[in-house]
Each structure stands twice: as structure tokens, then as C-alpha cells.
Design brief:
The complex is a heterodimer. Chain A is α+β, with helices and mostly antiparallel strands. Chain A contains 8 helices and 20 strands. The longest helix of chain A is centred in the middle third of the chain and has 18 residues. Classes of the chains: A alpha+beta, B mainly alpha.
Chain lengths: ~350, ~270
């Protein structure tokens, strides 16, 4: 039984440059999947191959059990929202939304009615007669979304659609897109380089790096159980400590400067002496002026304190290893820059990464 | 500084507009040759222009030649511009230079060239000869205007149209063409004006049968200094003013009219 959307072994090369290297992915019907990665990681190229604007050098794309690899973009029935919205400037909002229906032979009266209904769904009732340049960025975004959804596409692709909006509007649109996506149950691929966007909206996140999929998992799994140090460093803030496994049976790892630590579990089978990276999230580290009893305490020299109001980021050094600690705003008063303090964590906070 | 700039601006306008101050009154002059200030005023030369076939035939020739030149130019330039702006191919930069070549070569050189070359082909003194020569001169101008427009065209609009179910042909008809329309119109207008206004090549190859209006005016001013020239200049000036002002009036009228809101009948 294959999934709704199947990418199998997609490869894309430009001359000697490999933009995509054997990308395979399965997406279930109705899922909201985010492609996350730095620019040039291959996420947009993958999206363009699904849409049909780029031709893969190898591999196949299937939607609903049918191969669309050889179909032209206009034969694929896929809705796309571009970063700059790409609304047709010579058409009004409602005519923009009517366009895909017009292309499918829906009569003008019925088509415009359907387009108006779709505009209402995205919260733009009564704005149909305006031209794109008479609409704000957020409203244009909604028109683009309505236009990509009105013809009931088999897939919805969103190419960094929130990039051009300011922060408040972006958060509002995140919620809005999620709401509309759920109510229509449309399978959605969302491309972004913004990890908080990916975290808050997705059923699953696919992390791209250098034309490969680094990891594909639910947001919290990506955050708490990253499979590679790239994912650990890219998603959220992280302390990555190089170490070797002291005893796989006793669950200890050693760093030359910091000494030996206990860890609770790992997703991988580990062997004694194996070189690994330990991930400890800044918010899992406890900062105190004096050593806490019953815990393994490490001395850290505080270099910088960045205050965010409700919380603060304490940046310092333990030996030669840079450390970041996230503390609640109220707790930050106990230390000053330049002072020495203690940091500690529990074995459960230590995640062992083998790649 | 600001006042200096303003006065400089006013002087420039006066300098540029000065010929009009002379030409327009001369067109109403009663003198039997070009003379300023006119000794008296009448409409006789306007009547002369609109009744004399010596003037009307060249006017008609100019309109036919400029129209045909515009059509031929656009037929050549539109596909060429799309190819040169959007595609990479061998010899593209050479083709780019070829397109602009006629702009670099002095008209007089082109004219001499056409005179001997078209002479061999039997195209001198024919409409077709002038149309071909003018097209050659209009192509680079139309190409420059259109390629600037096309370079600024957001290709995501075409991608969006295709993702929404429009085939490449329908994308071109419904999206590309309407959005490029202003650029196409301006480009065609430049081609038309170029041909209508061109004198040097016309003098060399248009002969008596295909004589264009500028050529006829040139002949006339050399031989008899007929004040009808002032009439034609005034009419052309008026035509240009109307052409420039029309879009402003159109948009002013449109913005004064109530905005047409057209929710489909019985939408909600």
C-alpha cells in the first residue's frame, strides 16, 4: 500500500552540481508536511519538481497511486502559493480566484459565485472587486490561498508564503492557514526556513541539507530526538558536546574537559569508545550559584546575558566548551556577567547523536 | 538653488517650445511663403492641405507605410524578444547585437545602402521598399522597449497560471499578453512614430509614388516654402498632444466613475 504522495529516489543535477540526491518521501492524505532547511538545501527544488516546473534528473513522483512524473504543470491539479503571491495584477481578487475554474470550463456566473465563497472562507468576504495592488500583504496572501484551493487540488504547495509578512501578521496567518488546511483536509507541503513556523504548523517536518533528507519526523521528535548533529544545531538552540562512549552498558559518555556523564537512552546501538555528540538543550540546564547536591555540577564562567524579559539566555564557557543556558527571567538576578557559577543537568536531558 | 533650478527649467521649456510659438501662428498666415510675424491671418492653407492631392497622397503614403512598418516590426520583434530575453542559446549575444545594429549605423549610411541595394532588387520608389527599410530602423527601438518590459515580468505569474490549469498557450493569452499590453502598445507606437517621422531614408528611396509626408515637406521647403508645412506641423503637434493627454483623461474619467463592484448575481 503506497502513500498518497510518493517521492521515490528523486535526483536533480545541474552539470556537476547535485541539487537533490536520492530524495524519497511518503506523505499521507491530509497530512501537513513542512520542508525545512537552509537556502540551497534542496527544499524548493523538491517542491518545484512536485509542481512540475523542474524536471527531475531521476526518480518518480506519484500522487494517489498515479505517476505524475511526465505530466506538464497544468495537468497536475496542484495548487501553489508563491512567496510573492503571484496574483494576476490585471484581474480583481475574485477574478483571480475564478481563473482556475475558468480554465476548467466552469461558467462565469457559477465560477464567480464559487470564487466568492472561497474568498469568504479565507476571510475576505466583500473584497472580491479589489485589484491585488489595492490589498494589503496579508490580504493578497489570502487571495493566493483561495485561488490555490478553489479547484480542490490534489495537493497544496506553499513556497515560503509567509516570508514577506511582518511578525504579528505571520503568526496570525500560520493559525489561519492551519485552520483552512484542516477544514478542507487538503494534503499540504509547506516550504520554509523558519523553524518556529515549521514547529507550530506541521504534522511532520522534513529537514533538508545539501540535497538530502537529514530527518523526517514529527516536530517534537525532531526537537528532542534529532538523528544528526546538523538537525540538532538547526532546530532550536543546542549545546553540542563532542564525547566518546565510556561504557555502553553503564550508559556513560566522556568529554576530555568536562569529564564523564550519564545518559538515559539513545535511539542507536552504541559501543564502547564510539565517538558521539551529546545534545543538551539550553532549557534543560539548571543554573545555580552553588553546586546542587545529588547532581553532577560543572563550573561555567558567564560571558554574556541576553535578557528577553520572561526569560534570559546565559552564554558562558565550561573549560573550553561554549555553553548556552536558558533561565527564567526571575532567576537571572542571581548571576552577573564575568562571574562563575554552576550548571547541572539530569541524565534524561542528554541525547546521544551518532552522526 | 531651488529658484535657480526653477528658472533653468523655465528657460529650457521656452527654448524647446519656441518653435511652436512661431509655427502655429505661421499656419494661419495669409503670406504666400513662410514668414514671421505673419502679415495677416486666414485658414486658407488649412483648406489647401485638406484639398490638395499633392499633400494628401504623401499623408496617405505615410499612414500606410507607418502602419505596415508597425505590423511587420511587431511580428518580428515580439517572438525575437521572447527568445532573446527568456532563453539561452548559441549565438545569443551575436543576435542581441544584430537586433540593435540599425541603431548604431547612421541613417545616411543605411539610406545609401538601401538606395543601391533596393535599386538592384527593383524596390526603389515602392511602398514595399520603404516599409522594409523603415522596419529595419524600427526593430531595434521596439525591441529595446519591449525587452525592458519583458525583463521586469514576474515569471511566477505564468507558473501560477500553469499550476492553476492553464496550458502554455492559454497562459500566454490570459496572463502574459494582457500584462504586457502597455509595453506592447508603447513599443508599437515607437515603431509607428519612427516610420512616420523618418526622412533620410525616405528621401533616398521613396521616389514620387511612395513619397512620405516628411519627404514631401522637405521637397516643398526647398522649392517653394509653402506655408502648408506650418499647417502640417501644427496638426502633427496637435495629434501628439492628444495622444499624450488621452490616457490621463481616460484614467481621470475612470477614477471619477463609481467603482464597479460586481459580485455575481445572487451570490449570497
Amino acid at each position: 500500500m503506497t502513500s498518497y504522495l510518493e517521492l521515490s529516489k528523486i535526483t536533480k543535477t545541474y552539470g556537476n552540481f547535485t541539487a537533490l540526491d536520492n530524495v524519497s518521501l511518503s506523505v499521507e492524505k491530509g497530512e501537513f508536511v513542512t520542508f525545512l532547511g537552509p537556502s540551497g538545501s534542496g527544499k524548493t527544488t523538491t517542491l518545484m519538481i512536485i509542481a512540475g516546473f523542474e524536471k527531475a534528473s531521476g526518480g518518480a513522483v506519484q500522487v494517489g497511486g498515479r505517476s505524475i512524473t511526465e505530466l506538464a504543470p497544468h495537468e497536475r491539479n496542484i495548487g501553489i502559493v508563491f512567496q510573492n503571491y503571484a496574483l494576476f495584477p490585471h484581474k480583481t481578487a475574485v477574478e483571480n480566484v475564478y481563473f482556475p475554474l475558468q480554465m476548467r470550463g466552469v461558467g462565469r456566473d457559477q465560477g464567480l459565485r464559487q470564487a466568492e465563497d472561497m474568498l469568504s472562507l479565507v476571510g475576505l468576504k466583500g473584497f472580491g472587486h479589489r485589484h491585488p495592488k489595492e490589498l494589503s500583504g496579508g490580504q493578497q496572501q489570502r487571495v493566493a490561498l483561495a485561488r490555490a484551493l478553489v479547484f480542490e487540488p490534489s495537493l497544496l504547495l506553499l513556497d515560503e508564503p509567509l516570508g514577506a509578512l511582518d511578525k504579528n501578521l505571520r503568526e496570525q496567518m500560520q493559525i489561519e492557514i492551519k485552520r483552512i488546511q484542516r477544514s478542507l483536509g487538503v494534503t499540504t507541503i509547506f516550504v520554509t526556513h523558519d523553524q518556529s513556523e515549521a514547529m507550530s504548523m506541521s504534522d511532520r517536518i522534513v529537514v533538508f541539507e545539501k540535497g538530502r533528507i537529514e530527518q523526517c519526523a514529527a516536530p517534537l521528535d525532531i526537537y528532542h530526538r534529532p538523528q544528526t548533529s546538523f538537525v540538532a544545531a538547526f532546530i532550536g538552540e543546542s549545546n553540542l558536546i563532542p564525547a566518546t562512549i565510556g561504557s555502553a552498558a553503564g550508559k556513560t559518555a566522556e568529554n576530555p574537559t568536562l569529564g564523564a556523564f550519564d545518559y538515559a537512552a539513545s535511539d542507536n546501538v552504541l559501543s564502547d569508545g564510539q565517538a558521539v555528540t551529546l545534545l543538551i538543550r539550553p532549557e534543560h540546564i539548571k543554573l545555580s550559584r552553588n553546586p546542587i547536591e545529588g547532581r553532577q555540577n560543572i563550573r561555567m564562567t558567564v560571558e554574556t546575558i541576553v535578557n528577553y524579559g520572561d526569560n534570559a539566555l546565559v552564554i558562558g564557557r565550561a573549560g573550553d566548551i561554549p555553553m548556552r543556558v536558558r533561565v527564567l527571567g526571575a532567576d537571572v538576578v542571581i548571576i552577573r556577567e564575568g562571574q562563575e557559577c554552576c550548571i547541572s543537568w539530569t541524565p534524561e536531558s542528554v541525547f546521544v547523536i551518532t552522526k | 538653488m531651488n529658484t535657480f533650478m526653477r528658472w533653468a527649467g523655465i528657460l529650457v521649456v521656452i527654448f524647446i517650445a519656441a518653435p511652436l510659438v512661431i509655427v502655429v501662428p505661421m499656419s494661419f498666415s495669409s503670406a504666400n511663403s513662410l514668414q514671421f510675424p505673419p502679415p495677416g491671418y486666414w485658414f486658407g492653407y488649412y483648406r489647401a492641405y485638406f484639398t490638395n492631392p499633392d499633400w494628401l497622397i504623401p499623408t496617405w503614403n505615410s499612414v500606410i507605410i507607418a502602419t505596415a512598418t508597425t505590423i511587420l516590426t511587431m511580428v518580428l520583434v515580439v517572438p525575437a524578444t521572447f527568445a532573446l530575453v527568456r532563453h539561452k542559446f548559441r549565438g545569443k549575444s551575436a543576435a542581441d547585437v544584430m537586433m540593435l545594429m540599425p541603431l548604431a549605423v547612421p541613417h545616411i549610411v543605411m539610406a545609401v545602402g538601401y538606395y543601391s541595394y533596393f535599386g538592384d532588387l527593383g524596390l526603389v520608389h515602392s511602398h514595399l521598399g520603404v516599409i522594409l527599410a523603415h522596419t529595419c530602423l524600427s526593430v531595434p527601438i521596439a525591441f529595446l522597449v519591449l525587452s525592458a518590459n519583458l525583463k521586469g515580468f514576474d515569471r511566477n505569474l505564468e507558473r501560477a497560471a500553469q499550476s492553476l490549469g492553464a496550458s502554455p498557450t492559454r497562459t500566454f493569452i490570459h496572463i502574459t499578453l494582457p500584462i504586457l499590453r502597455p509595453g506592447l502598445i508603447i513599443s508599437a507606437l515607437f515603431a509607428f512614430v519612427q516610420s512616420f517621422d523618418e526622412t533620410v531614408v525616405a528621401i533616398f528611396i521613396s521616389g514620387r509614388d511612395a513619397a512620405t509626408l516628411p519627404r514631401k515637406m522637405f521637397d516643398s521647403i526647398r522649392q517653394e516654402a509653402d506655408p502648408v508645412i506650418a499647417v502640417i506641423s501644427t496638426l502633427l503637434f496637435l495629434l501628439v498632444m492628444v495622444g499624450i493627454a488621452a490616457p490621463y483623461f481616460a484614467s481621470a474619467l475612470r477614477s471619477r466613475a463609481p467603482k464597479p463592484s460586481r459580485p455575481p448575481a445572487g451570490a449570497h
